[in-house]
Amino acid sequence: MRKPAGDDKRLAERSPLGARTGFLDGIWAAVATPFQANGALDLKGLERNTQVYSQTLGLDGIFCNGLMGEGWALSLDERKASLEATLSGRPGHLRVGVVTSHQSLSETLDLSRHAARTGADHLVLMRPGGLFSDEDLYRYVRAVRDAAGIPIILFDSEAQSGGYPLTVLRRLAEDGQIRGVKCTRDWDAINEVRAVCGHAIAVTDPYESHWLGNLMRFDLRALYADPEPYLFQLQGCRYIHGYYHAYERNDLQTAMDHYRALEPLRSIYERWILSPLRSGRPMNAALKHWCERMGLAAGPVRAPLQPLAADEARMLDQDLTDAFDAVFRSASISKNDEGMAWKS
């Protein structure tokens, strides 16, 4: 059985790969960037969404301007404006990270300094595009750390950015240059990074479907997720929170019950979000359609991405209706002041 919270020394002895830093503890989500019908940033919608993430869904943190947020489609000024609106809309307890990677190091430094000035809690860095030695990658991250002076989380994705070599991750972690790694590789690769760096930094697995296993095996209290926490939960019916807090109470049967309840939504998420990602295809149009069904500001995707075709939108709508009816049974939740909407 799991040791009570607070006994960190004995916990570390029991599970050395799950050493806790507390820095990323809680439920986080990668958020979409809403646009107006004409393609302009929807800053008011972004502020409203931020309030929903915190006040309605009770998330501990979000991170913006990444792949889910179409960060590649935003100008430097838009990326700064998006972060400023996010920070403006958040209640005091919501933590905010921001992807500051850009094509050139000078622009990455500009975005990183801006994030530090405006009050972001940490930066997220992808591996820079290009051919670099391990030493080059180390210098790249260190330059950003020296310029911004706030914590850095590395986004380690072999499929999307090539990822960071283990030797570089170990050196950065042990030198105190980074505070965590979001590793989107497979289960074995994530555990390999944890084995190498987990004693020094938070090594997070972004897949919600893995979290209960990570809690029980490693006491990994951070779900540094993609969009699952706001796609799978509604006001008053938050199963991810449910199994997390049941785990904290050592009520493992309730934790399993809440975890299993989400299987119909995980199946839809796999079909419309994860499968395209794994095959290198965009999923932003499906993500935004799903967000709109939840009552969140979303709007269109930006070119060269295309919206869902009419038949695709109908298929996704039917999948979502069936999944939400299965998960929430007879619940009928209509739009309210917090901005969440669902009609079963």
UniProtKB/TrEMBL annotation:
Gene3D superfamilies: Aldolase class I (3.20.20.70). Transmembrane segments: none annotated. SMART domains: DHDPS. CDD domains: DHDPS-like. InterPro entries: Aldolase_TIM (IPR013785), DapA-like (IPR002220). One of its GO terms (molecular function) is 4-hydroxy-tetrahydrodipicolinate synthase activity. Keywords: Lyase. Pfam families: DHDPS (PF00701). The keyword Transferase does not apply. Belongs to the DapA family. This is 4-hydroxy-tetrahydrodipicolinate synthase 2. It comes from Microvirga aerophila. The lineage of its organism: Bacteria, Pseudomonadati, Pseudomonadota, Alphaproteobacteria, Hyphomicrobiales.
